[in-house]
Design brief:
Length: 500
Amino acid sequence: MHRATSRQSPHDEESSARPVTTSTGDGSVVIPSLIQGGMGVAVSGWRLARAVAHAGQLGVVSGTALDLVLVRRLQKGDPDGDVRRALRALPLPGVADAILDRYFIDGGKAESQPFRGKPMIGLRPCRHVEDLMIAGSFVECWLAKEGHDRPIGINFLEKIQTPTIPSIYGAMLAGVDVVLVGAGIPRAIPPILDGLTAGRAVEMRVDVRTSDLDEEPMFRFDPQEYCGGVLPPVARPLFLAIVSSHVLATLLTVKLGLRIDGFVVEGPTAGGHNAPARGKQRCSTSGEPIYGKKDEPDLAVFRDLGRPFWLAGSFAAPEQLRRARAQGAAGIQVGTAFAYCEESGLADEIKARVLAASGAGAVRTKTDPIASPTGFPFKVVPLSGSLSEAGEYEARQRVCDLGYLRSAYRREGGDVGWRCPSEPVKDYVRKGGRVEDTVGRKCLCNALMSNVDLGQVTKGGTVENVLITSGDDVATVARFLAPGAESYSAQSVIERLLSG
């Protein structure tokens, strides 16, 4: 059992007011009291994670679509040479050269020129796709860890299953210290970490909609086969499961007996994807899911499980950190405050608009129950000109050319196909999907890439539109601005949270 070596009494107000460092696992990695959230696609990029780590807290990169982030950064010319520097450190002969030959554009592509595409990820990806998944997460983690010896984490969504294993392996090659996984039941992750550390083949079950297959499809990856039998050494990172309920935490640790090194307990006010409300689904007059008592985690259960836990969802205040510690938590996870800091990957224009609106008291999130193709509720920031507006959503020509949020389904012939309720409606229905499931579904894949200035140029010559996601804290995120300032740093967020 992996217990915190530094725990406060829930009633010890004096100790709960002090910054606390919590050690987990075998004591080789120290997870501080503040975890920076792994947000969006490249919002929590390597620059943000490295800045947070330099300040003594746990910096976390988002592990979503890093293969695509890699190839688009290279096509923009990698102006500071960071991506190429990291690729040169990749301990896989020939992989970096092949990627550079295919995607790097010296000086960057013209703004009007579309990005060159890459193959979508299926159950049996070709070697080139494996290379991109591994190299993408390696580059992000290697850059986040460059120049210091403090821990770095990487965050994955369980619902995005096919890239997970190669992406974890790439992160492990870069020496990632912590893996965090949420948006689903991450039961497969601990055995995957164990297997990759030992150099064994590992696999992950892929969810199939309306499946009556005799055998559930598995995504399999063999590091011995991939590396030709010459394996670079890797160490097992710690695993933090992101959960919303004590029921799931108990399932993972007690019933399944998995090695869980800690939990991030995430409430419905956190940004991005939220867990569905438990029990009968009800919506407010504005169409948002209503969460109730059943959705409140029992922290006594988490304390009894003996694993350290961090609380997430509107905890970005020093008094909230003290309250979390007084309830037995090792600390807090904070996302939104970091999403709008100078080091985050969000486009500068988006940061400026949201901070201005927040300062004027004119912004709040909406929990949209249907926007995400995954079926999970998704927090959206209403922003004029973005896909949050009905007119902008309806004007966009549907296309599914990235495919990260596709779902597997059983074809009539018995094999596995892929579909997404955000793809062209006729295509989705032709694949057996229900037309009503396409209503209001938004292409998060393309929108989230546009959020970080990596949006695709469409056939009409425009760039794919943005869709901003944040936690409820966006309403007051401008509080982190100093008087007269228009931006703030990750360091200033940390100093404020640890003050008092």
